[in-house]
Design a protein that fits this description.
By secondary structure, the chain is α+β, with helices and mostly antiparallel strands. The chain has helices at 38-44, 74-93, 110-122, 133-143, 188-199, 215-227, 247-253, 255-271, 292-302, 315-322, 336-359, 378-404, 410-443, 448-474, 483-486, 491-509, 516-523, 535-552, 556-573, 579-606, and strands spanning 2-6, 12-14, 27-29, 35-37, 52-53, 64-67, 70-73, 99-104, 129-132, 153-159, 163-171, 174-183, 233-238, 241-246, 279-285, 307-308, 361-363, 373-375, 628-632. A five-stranded mixed beta sheet has the order 2-1-19-8-9, sandwiched between helices. Strands 12-11-10-15-16 form a five-stranded mixed beta sheet. The chain has a three-stranded antiparallel beta sheet with strand order 4-3-5.
């Protein structure tokens, strides 16, 4: 029995039992009815062999088992094994598993599956999922980076203790088993017997049956066969002394066994009603898949050379963990942060624009040819336009969740959010144009400077928001979390930008008069400067510097180290001719934040499935230790750890 789990880092690992990556699947029944599992059961079986049940899961078709005079339910024996597997996975991961899956043979009927369900109930995992071994192998292929588009056909050849051939089809969000053929005499047990017969040929007086080989010769044959997975030849004891056993000898010894396996694969392909030219992939799993002669035998007969995945004996149990966990749609309510962000950003934008209008001085005669000019806080108009776009983005997120959270089609829901973001970008530009038109009419001046400091200043942010919206429309499933939370702009930055620009605008224009008490209060602690900007304007510059720090730095210690010098630098360089440049820089940084979130989404998708043996999860179980656990049954774990599905 093999057990795998996915930890908090999203990496799938096998559970180690002592020095081995598998646990003996036998159970010893004591005379008093007590149960001993694992390696302890194998050791105890030497003293009580009649009470040892080597393969409880393979005997699920019977309700009870007579173990040395003690009649016990088969489900109780299997439950004892499952309890050990659950405990081992929880100990390895650091917490109990949230999702449990059990790999079963693809040929099991309702009787055995029902008995396994009963055993899971007794083991405390009644809500566990049963997954067929070939389907689990399909998920293992996807997690390893294999491209299997819709309707792709895959043949899975399992060379365990026996042999099974299954044909899968990629269907929707999963796999469909098209055909399944079992061949008990085409697997590892029969290969071991064939190698044993080759090493010690029977004399004419002996029975000519492969399973009649002596136990010690059978064990030697098994070791010799497995050694050829990593060496071209081995030296083994034979009937007439030491014998050199290599790849040619192995091919000669097991030719008949491989012929049965290949024939079973052909029957499975015919039963699936697909042509051999339609096979996208033939994959070999199980302990026997490592043998160097397997690929040639199947490639010549099937016409498609098979591939072997890393750790083929554990492919099914790993794939069971790597299968994505369906995320159940929860009741989604509009975020209060989005609503607060929209209100705060809109209020700050309107306040800055009102300060720009009331604090601006117009020079030049009205209705003249020259047109007049304005002495204004252009940086305030710039940030008013930028915050208008940010407010529109906040409002789009809030309204989208409020309107479309109940949609069952998640991809459509996400695409509608992308449309909302793109619409917010257009709306933000429209507000900026409205600001410019109002100011042109109010001051009776040419529109060029006003459009430049409103529409053009907000263009980078608007373009970045539009790019984010187009990304969501084109690739709605790029991130696993919700898009509104992914693109949620920090409300604290909105507050700092709005307050900073407002304080600088007051220092330049004296509007509004309501801030005069604050100015007098600051004079009590900071000296009044003869320069244009006093303490209140410098405090506003500090706010802008801290806002930029919050956007460009993510870690707390980097923010602390960076905020002080950047805030002081902004306060020092503040001058009448630099306010517009500082405001434009803040606008560019805000646009950069949106573009960085776009790049982060693309990067997270690219790194989600690394091609390594420690394959991260492709679904959504990361975040909880031991988010998923699964195990796979091995009917004869004493045979050098050859893994196969139980109950041939």
């Amino acid at each position: 029995m093999k057990v795998a789990y996915a930890g908090v880092d999203g990496v799938v690992r096998l559970v180690q039992f002592g020095r081995e990556w598998w646990m003996p699947s036998g159970v010893l029944v004591e005379q008093d009815g007590g149960l001993v599992t694992g390696a302890a059961a194998v050791r105890r079986a030497v003293q009580r062999p009649e009470g040892f049940v080597a393969d409880p899961m393979g005997r699920l078709s019977a309700d009870t088992v007579d173990a040395g005079g003690v009649v016990i339910g088969t489900a109780d024996l299997v439950a004892a094994l499952l309890r050990v597997a659950l405990a081992a996975a929880a100990q390895a991961a650091g917490s109990p598993a949230a999702v449990v899956r059990v790999v079963s043979s693809g040929s099991w009927g309702p009787r055995r599956r029902g008995a396994l369900r009963s055993a899971l109930q007794r083991a405390g995992a009644g809500d566990a999922e049963l997954i067929a071994a070939p389907v689990a192998v399909g998920w293992h292929l996807l997690a390893g980076g294999v491209d299997l588009p819709e309707q792709s056909v895959v043949a899975v050849c399992d060379l365990g203790a026996g042999f099974s051939a299954r044909v899968l089809s990629r269907a929707g969000d999963g796999f469909e088993v098209l055909a399944s053929v079992e061949e008990p005499l085409g697997g590892g047990d029969t290969m071991d017997a064939a190698v044993a017969a080759w090493l010690s040929p029977p004399t004419p007086g002996d029975a000519v049956t492969l399973p009649a080989a002596a136990a010690e010769v059978l064990a030697t044959a098994r070791l010799a066969k497995e050694a050829l997975s990593s060496a071209p030849t081995v030296l083994v004891p034979g009937a007439v002394g030491q014998v050199v056993f290599g790849i040619p000898q192995l091919r000669q010894a097991v030719a008949g066994v491989l012929d049965r396996a290949v024939a079973a694969t052909g029957r499975a392909i015919e039963a699936a009603d697909v042509g051999r030219e339609d096979l996208a992939l033939v994959v070999c799993v199980g302990g026997g898949a490592r043998l160097p002669i397997v690929a040639d035998a199947f490639g010549d007969a099937v016409g498609v050379r098979p591939v072997t995945v890393p750790q083929p004996e554990a492919a099914a149990v790993l794939g069971a963990v790597q299968q994505p966990v369906p995320v159940q749609a929860a009741a989604v309510v509009p975020s209060g942060r989005d609503a607060a962000g929209a209100v705060v950003a809109a209020a700050a934008s309107v306040a800055l624009f009102a300060q720009f209008v009331t604090g601006t001085h117009r020079y030049g005669p009205p209705n003249s040819i020259d047109g007049g000019w304005l002495l204004a806080h252009w940086g305030g108009l710039c940030l008013a336009a930028v915050l208008a776009v940010v407010a529109a983005a906040f409002g789009a997120s809030w309204l989208h969740v409020a309107r479309y959270a109940a949609l069952e089609d998640e991809r459509l829901q996400r695409r509608l959010y992308g449309v909302a973001l793109a619409g917010a970008a257009v709306l933000g530009v429209g507000i900026c144009v409205g600001y410019a038109i109002f100011a042109v009419g109010y001051f009776d001046v040419p529109a060029g400077p006003l459009l430049r400091w409103s529409v053009l200043a907000a263009a980078p942010v608007s373009a970045a928001v539009a790019v984010a919206g187009l990304l969501v429309i084109a690739r709605p499933g790029l991130v696993e979390r919700s898009w509104p939370s992914w693109f949620r702009f920090p409300v604290s930055v909105v507050v700092l930008v709005g307050a900073g620009a407002y304080l600088i605008g007051y220092d330049m224009s004296g509007s509004p008069l309501a801030l005069r008490p604050l100015q007098w209060w600051l004079y009590r602690f900071l000296p009044e400067e003869p320069d244009v900007f006093s303490a209140i304007g410098r405090v506003g510059a500090v706010c802008l510097g801290v806002a930029v720090t919050l956007l460009v730095a993510r870690r707390a210690w980097i923010r602390v180290v960076t905020a002080v010098p950047l805030a002081l630098l902004t306060a020092v360089v503040l001058a009448p001719r630099s306010t517009g440049l500082i405001a434009a820089t803040v606008g560019v940084v805000i646009a950069g934040w949106w573009l960085w979130r776009v790049l982060a989404a693309l990067g997270s998708a690219a790194l989600r499935v690394p091609r390594s043996q420690r394959t991260p999860l492709s679904g959504s179980a990361a975040g909880d230790p031991a988010a998923r656990a699964s195990w796979q049954h091995t009917p004869d774990v004493s045979s050098a750890g050859v893994a196969a599905e139980g109950g041939r």
